[in-house]
Write a structure and sequence with these properties.
The chain has about 140 residues and is an all-alpha fold. The radius of gyration is 21 Å and the shape is flat. The relative contact order is 0.09.
Length: about 140
């Protein structure tokens, strides 16, 4: 397989999911009509390009975490308005199961993905507790 003209990174293929996340539009041609996301050249000529792409993905992950926290705040406010409990353990388990299933479908080891999602849920709980503490200080 030969990779040509991959967004200035000679010999390095783009990561397929970056196309939608980062609007990354490399000009690439793959010989033998192999479009497998697992197909990779034997080596990348430079390290700077892939590292920059990793940094960009990491920045996007932080933005997505921030968006997720905001949505969790909205959900918590809706639960509070309805008199529902703050935590829904069944929903949390469903979120983690769904993430593991999505990981498996992409040939990613599911257990570390489960851990990431449990950590995201824990972050939401910590954020909610911080909001409660701020509110308590404002309204003694």
């Amino acid at each position: 397989m030969v990779w040509e003209g991959t967004a200035g990174i000679t010999g390095c293929p783009p990561i397929p999911f970056l196309h939608s996340i980062l609007d990354y539009e490399p000009s690439m041609h793959i010989s033998n009509n192999d479009t497998s996301s697992r197909a990779r050249p034997s080596r990348c000529v430079t390290l700077g390009g892939p590292r920059k792409q990793i940094d960009d993905v990491d920045d996007s992950i932080i933005e997505l975490i921030s968006s997720r926290l905001e949505l969790a705040r909205r959900a918590a406010a809706a639960k509070h308005a309805q008199g529902a409990p703050a935590r829904d353990l069944q929903r949390e388990a469903e979120i983690v199961r769904r993430a593991a299933t999505n990981a498996r479908q992409r040939s990613i080891e599911p257990e570390p993905v489960r851990n990431v999602f449990w950590s995201l849920l824990a972050l939401s709980h910590l954020d909610r507790e911080a909001d409660r503490a701020r509110a308590a200080r404002r309204d003694p």
